Every structure is written in C-alpha cells, then in structure tokens.
UniProtKB/TrEMBL annotation:
One Pfam family recorded for the sequence: Rhodanese
Annotated ranges, domain Rhodanese: 138-226
Source organism, top-level taxon: Bacteria
GO molecular function, one term: transferase activity
Keywords: Transferase
Alphabetized CDD domains for the sequence: RHOD
Keyword Transferase: yes
The keyword Transferase appears for this protein: yes
Membrane-spanning intervals of the chain: none
Stated name of the protein: Sulfurtransferase
Length: 240
C-alpha cells in the first residue's frame, strides 16, 4: 500500500488508502470523520493547523483511508494508518495506537482523539444547551467544562468552570464526574461538540454541548450586564 505525499507551499499533503470518491464509485457504505485543529502530540500543542480526514466502513468501523494536511508529523501519522489498514484494524485500534514509535510512553495524538470522537458519535445524542441558559447553569452549580486552551481560558471564562483542554481529556478523564451532568463549551461550539462525543466514547453519558460557545455566552451576558462585569457570570467578555 503506497503513501502519497506532495508539497503545497508550506504544507505537506498526504494520503493513504481509499479516497471518498473511490469509495463512492465502489458503492462502499463508509463514514468520513474530519478534524481541523491546532496540532499536538501529548501535552504540547502548537499554533500550527492540521487537517485530518479518516474514512472507515460504516458497519465494521474498519479504517479504509486517510488524508492529512500539515507542516510536519505527516509521515508518522500516515505510517500509523497504513499499519492499521494492513492489519484490518478499526477505529478502536486507532484509539490506542502509538503514532510516534520513538516515544517511550504512549502520548495521545490528534489521530487518537479523532478516532475517539468518531466512536462517540455512534452513541445516543445528548441534548445541546443554548448559551443563554448559562446563568441558570451557574446558579444551579452545574459542572461546567471549558475545553479551550489555558491561554483562552485566562482571557475570559464562565465563573466556576473547570478548564481541561480537549487534548488532555483522555489523560485526565478520572477527574471528571460520571454521576453528574457535564456542560461543555469552547470558543464557538465546535471543539466542545467533539469533546461531548469524545466523553461519550469514554463512558460519560450525561454530557451536553453549549451551542455557540463562549462567543455566544459573551454576547448574551454583555447585553444582560450592560458591560458591568461585577455581577456577571463571566470573568471577561470575548467576541473573537
């Protein structure tokens, strides 16, 4: 099985296995899971953007192909997918696969996160919550989880919210309550939606995405507070 890589400006574009068009032509029932995120492996995020798309069989969850665009780390990730495809592996195999073979310990890679997110989507959907309900959630002392990076959290967050970046959920999952509802937010609602699916795949059943994220929360609270943060449920507003 051949890995294809070519350069486009500062980015490397790579693929392994089938593409979406090839699977459609073969009339194979497949699912594609996409992720656009800051790149990371382990606990070290970067400001570099990585785009991932993994294709898998809808019923068996066997990996069928993958496309990646990134400035680096592309070869190791494509080799990981190649190894799993050649062994007939599925999403569960990808969850625990050590992408960087030189690591002494297994560090969660963005590929592992993507696989967990895809598995979580096969479970029952939890009800999303609108951002304008945030005051009731704070008043009722619900468990609020902020999955943004720490620097984003420090620039403004919901008072009482726990900060746990998406990339750290796997290693810190035991710190989260399974007997309570968990309300998750990020900047705009995309990372938190991934986090909800991620948590469901880890056995958390009472998880909810706060639609619109902290941007919507900030807009709603700014109009309610008239710009007065003293009595607000947020430490600062963020509209970016």
């Amino acid at each position: 099985m051949e890995i294809n890589i070519f350069q486009l400006n500062n980015y490397k574009l790579g693929s392994i296995g089938f593409t979406s068009r090839e699977l459609e032509n073969l009339k194979i029932d497949f699912v594609e899971e996409k992720l656009l995120s800051n790149d990371y492996n382990g606990d070290n995020p970067t400001n570099k953007i990585v785009y991932l798309k993994v294709l898998f069989d809808k019923e068996s969850k066997k990996i069928l192909g993958c496309q990646i665009a990134n400035e680096k780390n592309i070869e190791a990730r494509l080799n990981a997918i190649k190894s799993i495809i050649e062994k007939g592996g599925d999403l569960k195999d990808l969850v625990k696969y050590k992408v960087n073979p030189t690591d002494n310990e297994w560090n969660p890679d963005i590929l592992n996160i993507l696989a967990l997110t895809a598995l979580g989507k096969n479970q029952e959907n939890s009800e999303d919550v609108e951002a304008n309900n945030i005051e009731n959630l704070v008043k009722n002392k619900e468990f609020l989880l902020d999955v943004r990076e720490e620097y984003e959290y420090q620039e403004g967050h919901v008072k009482g919210a726990v900060n746990l970046p998406l990339r750290e959920i796997l290693s810190q999952k035991d710190s989260l309550p399974k007997d309570k509802d968990i309300y998750v937010y990020c900047r705009s609602g995309h990372r938190s939606a991934d986090a909800v699916n991620f948590l469901k795949s880890l056995g958390f059943e009472k998880v909810h995405n706060i639609e619109g994220g902290f941007i919507d929360i900030s807009f709603n609270e700014y109009h309610k507070d008239k710009g007065n943060l003293e009595n607000s449920v947020v430490t600062n507003y963020n509209f970016d």
